[in-house]
């Protein structure tokens, strides 16, 4: 059965919003970790906000450093979790998930293929973890304090959730790649 996995950039103070503003370290090991995540996944889960930002950007992206990611995300089936959107037709291969999230995730996990990657979407990641629907969480912990005014991965009133560390690797730039699985 496929797994639901997430890889997120995070600061030392737990910020996940707008990593392009505070992620200063990028090295070959971090790039290789992201490449592995793409290689092992063929389906994407997105929250509403990430979908709305990315649907305007990635379909028309050409060339540049992110060409491989653009090709991957544009070709992959995308499942957008939203209670407010009426449709997701502006980005090809996108499907709207409304209603019972657990049932939708179960159907996706039972379908054939590689893993299901949650792209960005920290609110969705927190919700999936809360509902025991996330199988693996890799945090790319950046050696920076991003500061206030930005969204953190978990709200202050998050429910206690125990995870186990399954792998940790520091990169040459000081980022720690830490992979966790929920204890069930």
Describe the model.
This protein has 184 residues and is of the alpha/beta class. The chain is built from 5 helices and 8 strands, in the order βαβααββαβαβββ. Strands 4-3-2-5-1-6-8-7 form an 8-stranded mixed sheet, sandwiched between helices. The two termini are 17 Å apart.
**Sheet having the most strands:** 8 strands, mixed
Beta-strand proportion:
25-35%
Secondary-structure element order, as H and E? EHEHHEEHEHEEE
Backbone structural class? alpha/beta
Low-confidence stretches: none
CATH topology heading: Dihydrofolate Reductase, subunit A
CATH superfamily label: Dihydrofolate Reductase, subunit A
- Total domain modules: 1
Which class in CATH terms? Alpha Beta
Helix content: 25-40%
Please name the CATH architecture. Answer: 3-Layer(aba) Sandwich
Tally the helices: what do you get?
5
Mean pLDDT: 91
Major β-sheet strand ordering: 4-3-2-5-1-6-8-7
Give the terminus-to-terminus CA distance: 17 Å
Got a strand count?
8
What Rg is obtained from the alpha carbons, in whole angstroms?
16 Å
Topology, please?
Layout: E1 4-11, H1 28-39, E2 41-47, H2 48-55, H3 67-75, E3 78-81, E4 94-97, H4 101-110, E5 115-118, H5 122-130, E6 136-142, E7 163-170, E8 176-182
Parallel strand pairs: 1-5, 1-6, 2-3, 2-5, 3-4
Antiparallel strand pairs: 6-8, 7-8
């Amino acid at each position: 059965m496929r797994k639901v996995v997430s890889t997120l950039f995070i600061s030392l103070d737990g910020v996940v919003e707008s990593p392009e503003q505070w992620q200063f370290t990028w090295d070959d090991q971090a790039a290789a970790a992201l490449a592995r995540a793409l290689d092992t996944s063929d389906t994407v889960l997105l929250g509403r906000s990430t979908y709305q930002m990315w649907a305007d950007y990635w379909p028309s992206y050409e060339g540049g450093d992110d060409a491989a990611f653009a090709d991957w995300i544009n070709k992959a089936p995308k499942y957008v979790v939203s209670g407010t959107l009426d449709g997701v037709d502006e980005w090809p291969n996108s499907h709207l998930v409304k209603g019972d999230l657990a049932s939708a995730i179960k159907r996706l996990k039972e379908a054939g293929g590689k893993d299901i990657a949650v792209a960005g979407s920290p609110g969705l990641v927190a919700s999936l973890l809360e509902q025991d629907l996330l199988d693996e969480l890799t945090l790319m912990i950046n050696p920076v304090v991003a500061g206030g005014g930005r969204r953190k991965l978990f709200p202050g009133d998050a429910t206690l959730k125990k995870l186990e560390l399954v792998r940790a690797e520091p990169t040459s730039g000081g980022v720690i790649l830490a992979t966790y699985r929920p204890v069930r």
